[in-house]
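User: Batch of two.

Assistant: Item 1 of 2:
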Amino acid sequence: MSSIAPGIALDTTLADLYRADGVSEIDMPTLLPCYWCSDVDYQEGIPKTSKYLYQGTPVPQNTDEVRALVIQCLSLECQRFLFAAGDMKAVLFDWSGDRNNRLEVAESLGVLCETQQPKTCFASDLEDLEHKTSSSKVAVVVPHEGLFAGQQVVHPDVLYTLLSKRCLALSGLLTPRSIVLDLDDLDGSVDQKLALASSWIRCFMLPRVFKTQQGMSSIGTFTVRNEQERSDLIECLSSSILRRTLASVTPANKYLYPSTLVSQEMISQAEDCFAVSFFVKRNGECVFLGACRQDMSESNDWLGASINYLKQKRLRRNLWGTITKVSSFLTLKGYYGPAGADIILEGGVNGRNILQPTVVDLNVRMMGSLNLCLLKGHFSRQRNLHEACITQRLKFSFTRDQFQNLLSKEISLGKVIIVAWYYDRHMQHSWGTMILGGADAGCLEDLYNRVKALSS
């Protein structure tokens, strides 16, 4: 059914960006677009990471939740990143003998023009992955100690450090004033360190933002406005997130500060918040790719992102100085490749009517909203669809073919693009991520509501 979608041409791709920076075909890295988990093995041969600790996913409580996590991290997220890769090699995983993932990946990438489709292959486990990538460098989204460090484009310690909230707090970049609590430098038991963290959290005037070291998709970021939310945060850290991390610290990862907490001033006059995607070149310069609005729930959960293509030139001009400073900082730390930053435009700075860009998060990897930045030609120039959004993963009670039949007109007109889909035969439902385009914000909202109404 993917033939009903137009052959989509991206404005540029990750492979194009590497080439433009002088990378030859023989030196083109292989993309490994997987998220890793610190709490559970995906399966035998694809273990959790025990050195690079993350707080980016809730801990699965049963086999069905483990299955859902594997589908999210080894299929849906991979498909979303692969969409922007271009004609470079990429490796994904088969798991539990389920070849459905191969079919879903082929369907999702099949809507792209042939010259921009990645050359994908599949590995059964980490050992097989090493064999399949033995002749090239590997570009990862997040690091895993099971991958050979010397084979990666960026050393895993460097990447893990740059992904951390501690790194931004101590970077010297313009960011909300932050205070860091390094628990891993201290002696004492897990309970003693949790007691110290609780006392530390109680010291601050509210409102305040607190962050764990390695949260993703807003998980690990807590906006605390009142005493009840402060108590809820302390309970959450003490009973689950921080307790698990502290219990997993060893001499092999202590120097990476996985248990650090960051307390940050809340910006009270935020005019807008943008997820900005760019590419860091080897000489420290950067390529601006786009600025997307972050769509968040009241509880700070990530709902997706949206973009206005007509405003990109102005946003590039307003954000350029900040992005070049971030790019220079990342280069000095040893990074090269796709990156992102969440930047708030803060109004009324020093009594003046100007907007000051303030970096509130660094995402030193391909961002979830990157695909939106690469579709200006497809949406805005060719179809006069000047607003677009990418959804969070949505759950559906039917297959991809059935979904495409329900929205066949919108797909054939290029208004709906399925960037990731997985039909779970075991649970008899699907997960999907879409990019939607509309002539204006109202048209986009109407289309989004139609798609959302189909989800279960």
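Item 2 of 2:
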Amino acid sequence: MGESKASLDSNGPAPGNNDSPKRSDYGFHSFQDFTWHQFTGTMSTGSLAVVLFQTPYKFPGVVTAGKVIFVVDLIFFALLCICISLRFFIRPKLIVKSVYDSHQSHDEPFYLGAFGVSLALVLENISQYGVPACGPWLVRTCEVLFWIYFACILVAAVLQYQTLFVTRNFNIDSMTPSWLLPIYPLLLTGSLASVLIQHQPHESASPMWICGVASQGLGWMVTILMYAMWAIRLLTEEIPAPAMRPSMFVAVGPTAYTVTAIVSLGASASKGLPDPFLGESPKAAAATIHVVAVVAGTFLWLFAFWFFALSTVAVVLGSRKLTPNYTWWSFIFPNAGLTLATIQMGKAYDSSAINYLCSVMTAALFLGWLFVSASLLNAVRKGRLG
């Protein structure tokens, strides 16, 4: 059990892989470490920019800081795309290996979802920060990009899980929250749709709203199946090694982003429902949907917090053995989802107490992002990245 668990809890290809490059091959060796894992960094950076835009109480400079973080995210994302493209250009067979691999010791295929989530957050930030400063052309562009994005992630979700089901035999004792990542892009579609339709005309907003609801439903149902396996794994086996415990926060994200999507889509139902809806004006139905969405979001919010609390206790208990590695980005992205869910709760209940809590959570998230970024950069500089 120990060997397979350690390999699946790792953040990169297993040591001793026959496809590893030789030290003399400087070109490939320079890009061998750029895998889908690194896009967890753009997930976290992009989600922080979303939080800074949506946080309820903004002091001067918060939106500007969000814009700066968004630009950093764009640069970071572009550089990773260039580097991973060079990796595939130098070794083309790694394209297939990175998304389809039958060896349990190779977990990179799971992290393809991080690339999809990063794209969703880029599109969401373009709508938030860019549309108010640009003309209608960007609104139309966002609509087209949304449908391209949805088509791609839906196909990817079907093919990737089909591949995993057919080619790999997993043991429950090796289960990690990274198994949730292939469905993560669909879990972001609901909140993405709720942001984009704010600027869309009704004829464009309605299909996007329906798509957002359906996508969130699919993502949430798959998540429930994965949660069951994660719970069994925690009940029957020991929790992950201390160095990998930050990845436990990944389990916070699906519920948190589902709360965010449900409540925000419920609030925009008046714009998203077709007109007429069931033969009637959508206004009455929209009000009912909004109420149900808020109740459902409240019902689920504490579940997300429960996962947050479990993960926090586990990390604290193993904090002395923590070493910088890419799982540290799990401190940011899932908890950004919890912050966004809390922001939606504050809006729904018009609660100043919840809104002040959101400000505290936003500040903690920003400081956490600075700490994680500095720690990982320092570890890369010293060659000590785990």
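The mean pLDDT is 85.
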